[in-house]
Specification:
single chain, about 350 residues, alpha/beta, 7-stranded mixed beta sheet, 21 strands
């Protein structure tokens, strides 16, 4: 798609339930969260969209318990701790989150705003867009076995944010990371039967989770099954049984009516490549002084961008989010914003909810 196609004005559509906002942030990793903070300091209201069911992106998903040593002022923290701190920092902004959905289309309206529609059908009319999608949208890896495509969405769940669907069911949690372990632990108090299947009897989870899992195994509340799913059987989309192969290569059968899959996540550039912005080697080309892309009103920050001297570091993304917020404030408000300091600015203190005695 050419730039002229990307920025071509689309005719106004009939009245809809679209969400009107000044800014839409695509990507809820650390840079997306800090982008919300910087926009909030400029008085710009934003909404946040992410393909995962929780904030944190790659940092929380892949480095949740691994140490990070190069965040200014924090000698060491885990990925999850960093995300928690950033989430706490943006609390005064009251940022609406639209999780477990991906922006699939972006087009320009007649009034100059951008229309964004997600895979969940959520529609936004926004004056500006901030792409903080890292190396692409992180989406759950799919289970690829015979029969899986016929299951309904309530029978097969990928990385669900909660496990209430397990209530009274025969549940199989499939995976070996901490999310899978925690899901099995949560299901144990809800489900009629809880099984945790992994290709080996070793799980990548925190020590307290592993201790809890072992206790539930010992009590019979969780059955650990060592093997891999090879096929699922269903009737009218309703999961009934699944075939699985044990370590000896023998096929066996389990009766299951809920399947929770935790096979990890993988990045996909996805629809971003079709939005008409200049791209080099799967990265968006921006002006490093403003973080503006080749499409007016769209900014990009973090690992998704390319410019001379770019470094793929979290702290560099924080700088880019700051530059983008100042540039967007000038674009949206019609004048260059004053540089104010959170230490002394009464205006910023009001935004942050700082109260003085």
């Amino acid at each position: 798609m050419s730039e002229s196609q990307a920025t071509a004005i689309q005719p106004d559509s009939p009245p809809s339930n679209a969400i009107d906002t000044d800014a839409l942030i695509i990507g809820a990793g650390p840079i997306g969260l800090f982008q919300a903070f910087q926009l909030g300091l400029q008085g710009i209201k934003a909404h946040l969209v992410d393909a995962l069911p929780h904030v944190g992106g790659q940092c929380a998903q892949l480095y949740g318990h691994k140490p990070i040593y190069d965040i200014p002022g924090i000698p060491v923290c885990t990925g999850k701790e960093l995300v928690q701190l950033l989430d706490q920092q943006i609390a005064p902004m009251n940022l609406p989150r639209h999780l477990n959905q991906q922006v699939q289309s972006l087009s320009r309206l007649a009034d100059g705003r951008w229309q964004a529609v997600t895979t969940a059908g959520t529609e936004f009319h926004t004056r500006s867009v901030f792409v903080a999608a890292g190396v692409g949208a992180f989406v759950p890896k799919a289970l690829k076995v015979a029969g899986v495509d016929q299951l309904t969405a309530d029978q097969l769940l990928y990385h669900p944010s909660e496990t209430s669907s397990a209530l009274g069911r025969s549940v199989l949690v499939y995976g070996g990371d901490e999310e899978a372990v925690q899901a099995a632990i949560d299901c144990a108090s809800l489900a009629a039967k809880t099984r945790l299947m992994h290709r080996r009897d070793a799980f990548d989870a925190a020590p307290d989770q592993l201790a809890r899992l072992q206790a539930l195994r010992d009590s019979g509340a969780i059955e650990v099954v060592i093997g891999q799913i090879t096929e699922v059987q269903q009737n009218a989309g309703q999961l009934q049984t699944l075939q699985w192969m044990d370590g000896e290569g023998r096929e066996q059968t389990l009766s299951v009516d809920r399947l929770l899959v935790y096979l990890g996540i993988s990045p996909r550039l996805g629809p971003i490549a079709d939005w008409g912005m200049a791209i080099e080697k799967k990265q968006l080309v921006i002006d490093p002084a403003t973080m503006a892309t080749s499409a007016q009103g769209i900014y990009a920050v973090g690992d998704i961008v390319s410019y001379p001297g770019k470094k793929k570091l979290i702290l560099c993304g924080f700088h880019e989010a700051t530059m983008a917020a100042f540039a967007a404030a000038e674009y949206l408000q019609g004048e260059k914003p004053l540089l104010q300091y959170t230490t002394t600015s009464a205006k910023l203190h009001a935004i942050l909810g700082v109260h003085h005695p």
